[in-house]
Design goal:
12 strands; twelve-stranded antiparallel β-barrel; Porin; mainly beta
Length: 216
């Protein structure tokens, strides 16, 4: 567990100093690779994926969950179910599935996660919603988690410029043992430029959020 946490911390320090980035979508350009890290009240998560074609990406996910002392190592497949483009907006719907191993204490179990994620955005407004169900026999006997976001860009940046989004994130974890963690509200700032993205925020319980994405 200590090795996992140390490796995630090293990766965070290394990439937090990089320039900022573009959109954190689960499917990049064909042949592109993406490295993402999530750090919040719940978990530290490192995710790498390769985009095989316009509809599919494949990768690996490494997680340590602070609230449960659980570790996950999963293979992941992201699939674009639908996309709608207009002159002023884009909407996407993704199927996100994972299969791997969960570890908690001295117990190991197969881990399965399946989710739907959708987003709609213009150059000024952003909304997204994701619902995920997971199961790891004896460790997680079935749980459902939801996350939604709304955002606004205080200015419309041009190509190659620094883009800024002000966002509000709402999470719902009904199976949490801590009542204060069943519903989490997090105001955050998203900054991106080129192929790098950083998100900074703090939730209603005082927990920090620091996420980054780098595309190659």
């Amino acid at each position: 567990m200590m090795v996992l946490r140390n490796s995630l911390s090293i990766a965070l320090v290394s990439f937090a100093m990089v320039t900022l980035s573009s959109n954190a979508r689960p499917i990049s350009y064909v042949g592109g690779t993406t490295l993402m890290q999530t750090n919040n009240w719940e978990k530290n998560r490192l995710h790498y994926h390769y985009t095989h074609d316009v509809n599919n990406s494949f990768g690996m996910v490494l997680e340590y969950e602070d609230d449960t002392n659980r570790q996950n190592l999963n293979g992941q497949w992201n699939h674009l179910l639908a996309r709608s483009n207009t002159r002023t907006s884009q909407a996407n719907l993704y199927l996100k599935s994972q299969l791997g191993i969960a570890k908690k204490g001295g117990r190991y179990a197969p881990n399965t996660e399946v989710g739907l994620a959708g987003d709609w955005e213009t150059r000024k407004f952003f909304t997204s919603y994701a619902v995920t169900g997971r199961y790891a026999n004896g460790i997680d006997d079935g749980s459902v988690h939801q996350k939604g976001r709304v955002g606004i860009a205080p200015y419309v940046a041009g190509y190659g410029e620094l883009h800024t989004w002000l966002m509000l994130q709402l999470e719902h974890h009904p199976e949490s043992f801590n009542d204060e963690e069943k519903v989490i509200l997090t105001p955050l700032v998203r900054l991106f430029k080129g192929f790098y993205l950083v998100e900074l925020g703090i939730n209603n319980n005082g927990g920090p959020l620091l996420n980054w994405t780098a595309r190659f």
